[in-house]
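Please think about what follows:
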Amino acid sequence: MAFPTAIQVYSVREEAKADLRATLAKLKEMGYDGVEFAGLYGHTADEVKTMCEELGLVPVSAHVPYLDMVKDPEGVLGTYAAIGCKYVAVPYLNDDLRPGTDKFPEVMKNIAMLGEVANRLGMTLLYHNHDFEFIKLGGKYGLDTLYETVPADLLKTELDVCWVKVGGEEPAAYIKKYSGRAPVVHLKDFYGEKSDNMYELIGLEAQKPVRPDGFEFRPLGKGLQDFAPILEAAKEAGTEWVVVEQDKPSLGLTPMECAKASIDYLRTINK
C-alpha cells in the first residue's frame, strides 16, 4: 500500500484489555503495519516494546491524556519514548480547557512545553482534533490558532478526518493546508449528522440509547467519507502514516471485524 497503515488500539480496547499480545498479533495478521496506543493495558513499556518487536508491528504513536503529560512531562513521555514511539499526541481536551475558554492560552503554552520535552526524548508531539476546535476565535478556528501559536518544530498535526468533516471543513483541503506538518492522519468514517450522542460514542460520557438515524462511526468505506482524495491530499502533504480509528463498532460487527473491514477497504484504494 502507498501508506503504511496503523490502527488506534482504542478501537479494539476490550480485546486489548483481555489479551494485548494476542490482539496485536491479530491486527498484524490482518495487515496492519503499526499501532497507536491509548494506554498500555497493565503492561510495562519494555513489555509492549518487546511485543511490537516480536510481532513486527511499529509502535508509531500514542494518545496520552493532556493532564497526565502536564503533571509529569518527562516521566509520562519517557514511557512512550522507551516503547519506541516516534510520535505522541494530545488526544482530547476537557470542556474547561478547549478553545474559547479562559484556560486555552495556558493550554497552548503547556503544549509548547510538552513539544520541547518530546523533542528532547526523540519524539514529536501531535495534536489530535475533534470538532470542538472548529470554533471561531477572532475570525480563526481554535485549531488554527493552536497551530499558529505553537511553532511547527514543537507541534505537528494529527488531523482526524471524521471530526474535520463534522466540524464543517473538507478533510482533503484541510490536510493540504498543513502540508509539511501532517505526518500522521487519522482515517475515520461515519454516518449521520452532528448530534448530541457523538461524544457518548467515543466512550467519554454516559451511554444513552442511540437513535437509528443518529450519528455512528463506521468501518472505512461504509460511511460518508470519500477517502480517495483524502489519501491523495495526504501524499501531497508529506504524510508518513495513516491511522485507522473507530471509537465504537457498528453495522452489527465486532470491533475486530470492523478493524478488518477497514484494512480490507484500504487495500482497494491505498495504492
